[in-house]
Each structure stands twice: as C-alpha cells, then as structure tokens.
Design goal:
Radius of gyration of chain A: 15 Å
Largest sheet of chain A: 6 strands, antiparallel
Number of helices of chain A: 1
Oligomer: homodimer
Order of helices and strands of chain A: EEHEEEE
Number of strands of chain A: 6
Largest interface: A-B, 41 and 41 residues
CATH class of chain A: Alpha Beta
CATH topology of chain A: Thiol Ester Dehydrase, Chain A
Structural class of chain A: alpha+beta
C-alpha cells in the first residue's frame, strides 16, 4: 500500500490536466487520497477564484474540483476493484462524460475545502462517482460525475 | 440599444467573478452578447487550461464557461423580458443553482470556442438556460444551467 496521492500515479502522458495534473506547473495540482471507502481531497483556492461578489468561491471552480477529484477517484477505484494497489501497476485514466452539480449554499473563500468522492456504479467503460464539497463542516455543493475509461489505458 | 457585453453592465459589487467579472484582473473576463434570440460568447483558452493529455480543453474549464455565460444570459434575458435594454437600468444578478454538462466529444485547444445560450424557462426566481460549446463548427459539449436571482438585485 502507498500513501501517495492518486494523481502522483498518473502516467506522464496523462498528467497535464489544469485541475489535477502534477506536470501542469500553472495548474491547481489537486491531490486525492483514500479515506476508507471514500476518497478525499483538501484544497484552499486562491482568492481570485471568487464569485461575482468577493468572499465566495465561483461555481465553475467548484465544478472543476469535483470533475478532477471524481476522475481521480474512479481511476483509483478501478484499480482497487481489480485487486491492485497504486504501486502495483499503471493507473487507468478516464475522461469526463458528464457532470451535474447542485449548489446548495454559498462556499466561503478562505477555509480549506473538502471534496469527498464515493464510487457509485460501473457500466462497461462508464463509471459514476458521487461527490460532495464542504467548507467549515457543512456541505456546500453535491455532484455526480460520469467518467469514461480511455480505451488504450489498462 | 447597446453593443456592450452583458458583463460590462454588472454592478461593480457583483463584477468580481473569476470567470466573468470585468473587475477580476486575474480572471477570464468572458464577454457575452445577444445574437438574435441566442446569446453568444467567444473565448480562446490559454494553453495551460489543458486536460490530462495536451491538446484538449479540460472539463472543468468547459463547465466554467457554461456557468458564467449562462449566468450572464439569464441576467440579460430577464432585463429583455421586462422590456428594458442594457442601458436602461441595472442588470439583475444571479447565482448558480445547478449545472449539468454532457461532454460529447473532445474540445481541441487552440481554436476559438463558441458558447451559445438560449433562455429556456423561468419559475419564480429560478431561470434555466440551455448552453452549447462548439469548436471548429462542431458542438463539443452541451449543458443546462439553473440560476437563482439574488433577492436584493432588481
């Protein structure tokens, strides 16, 4: 077993995403980990990722965090479902198929955000994960991300 | 009538959004306009907004463009529905209620992206807009954004 982040195991060729690629020096470089059956990511946005009025995170940023954390979660979940750990073999990569986000209440800018993912179902190459985003102990948004496995990735 | 972008009419207090606020010097500063019954926005992302493998735009960025263009569209549509033009009175502001994006095919990095919005329905303070994102003449993603009018904005 490893304590490394899921994104640290992406093959170099797939590690350029603005949201989650470790090789994107201009990007967010979010990091996702297992926490029991759930995956978790902590991230504190820079203040300029504000919404229309300062003090709150803008909706697109929340969707981006959910999209990237969701993609990382299904990659790691697929590996785990196949009976492997992150150190055993290359991680599969997925692309976004669809995303749905419900913004439940404003997300304050400043506190660390906690994004949690839970594997929901798999249908062929399509995998769905449920995601929540919390700040100060309250869920601010919930979402569902459908990812599609890239055929050439194992 | 005016040829100004919708976002140029946001009250200063609501013009800080990373995606669409004209006062956010670090932001995208997207601009949306009427094109008949539809709204349109053209935007060319910087190359670092790539997906996992270079050459394609990442999903969260597409969701962000749709979210912000959708919010601008409903603001302008509300004004138009009330019988006013952008120069007549302050534009109402909305916050994201929910967003759903279907990624239909990869969005290439490089070509200008065209985001189109179409007002769909209004239910009290909740307004829904349909959005498409195209590159090189092909629709790459389609979405639906539900916005909620901020009570204190008229």
């Amino acid at each position: 077993m490893t304590n490394g982040a899921f994104q640290d195991y992406y093959p170099d060729a797939f590690a350029h995403c603005f949201g989650c690629g470790r090789l994107n020096k201009d990007g967010l470089q979010i990091k996702s980990y297992w926490d029991g059956e759930e995956s978790v990511c902590h991230y504190t946005p820079k203040p300029f990722y504000t919404g229309g009025f300062p003090g709150y995170v803008y909706g697109g940023f929340i969707a981006s965090l959910m999209d990237c954390h969701g993609a990382a979660t299904v990659s790691a979940a697929k590996l785990r479902a196949d009976g492997y750990s992150l150190d055993d073999r290359p991680i599969s990569r997925f692309v976004s198929g669809s995303i749905k986000v419900d913004y439940l209440k404003p997300t304050p800018m400043g506190p660390v955000l906690e994004i949690r993912g839970r594997f929901k179902e798999i249908k062929g190459r399509k995998v769905t994960v449920s995601v929540t985003l919390s700040a100060e102990g309250e869920i601010r948004a919930k979402g569902e991300v459908l990812l599609v496995q890239i055929p050439e990735s194992k």
